[in-house]
Amino acid sequence: MNYPFPCLAIIMLIIAVITINRKRSDAKQADLNKTFLERENEANATRRQDISVLKYIKIPERLTDPENEVLKELCADELKELKRLSDEKLLNLTIYSNTDLKLMYGPQNLDDLSLYDNNFTSFEVTVTSLARKCIDNDMEGEAIPYLEFAIAHKTTDSQIYVLLGNAYKNRGQLDKVQTLIDGLEGQEFLMKKTILEKLSQIVS
After folding, report:
1. Domain residue extents for the chain
2. How many CB atoms lie within 10 A of CB 39?
3. Whose CB among 99, 116, 130, 199 lies 3.0–4.6 Å from 91's, allowing a Cys bridge?
4. Any bridge partners for residue 57, and if so which?
5. 3 state SS for the chain
6. pLDDT bracket for residue 24 (50, 70, 90)
């Protein structure tokens, strides 16, 4: 009855493999931490850049004060928020980390840049709310300019892409849905794959 010895050898082998993999994982994590700290130190030492020359997003008056009186009444809250945002600075910085922004513009500008990015996020939320109200009240066409403006400024909000894609489909404009898909080429962000899958379902 020599069974225990082979079993013991197998157990020891498994433990050894696990130990080696754990050490490799720990070493890899240590390298990542070192790289992050090096980038963060470099970012914190970056000189302040002039951010007044950045291309800020300006919400046009046609979106804050539309001609359609029904739209004005239906989406009064959203239009009020868009009007407020039109007087603020907006930047779409979604794809950048805080470290990226500090490396690019200096740590002294981080708070302002974060505010401008938050303003754009508020714009996206407001546009989504307005579009849903329009769709629920058989006014889908009125939502299209708002959705198009958000996408023109590289929104990464999947809801906005899907709402616009469906609006195009309902108008028999599948070529425009394909244009949305093509426009995502070259862009890299977290929700890109999900958006492409949803738009592909719309045109299929």
Report:
1. 46-203
2. 15
3. 116
4. 90
5. CCCHHHHHHHHHHHHHHHHHHHHHHHHHHHHHHHHHHHHHHHHHCCCCCCHHHCCCECCCHHHHCCCCHHHHHHCHHHHHHHHHHHCCCECCCCCCCHHHHHHHHCHHHHHHHHHHHHHHHHHHHHHHHHHHHHHHCCCHHHHHHHHHHHHHCCCCCHHHHHHHHHHHHHCCCHHHHHHHHHHCCCCCCCCHHHHHHHHHHHHC
6. low
CA distance 154 to 61: 20
Give the CA angle between residues 85, 86, 89 to the nearest 5°. Answer: 75
CB 188 within 8 A of CB 95: yes
Whether 84 shows a pLDDT value over 60: the answer reads: yes
Q: What is the per-residue pLDDT for 31?
A: 55
Q: What is the CA radius of gyration of the chain?
A: 25
Q: What's the pLDDT tens digit per position in 149-192?
A: 999 999 999 999 999 999 999 999 999 999 999 999 889 998 99
CB burial of residue 7 (10 Å; 0-12, 13-18, 19+): exposed
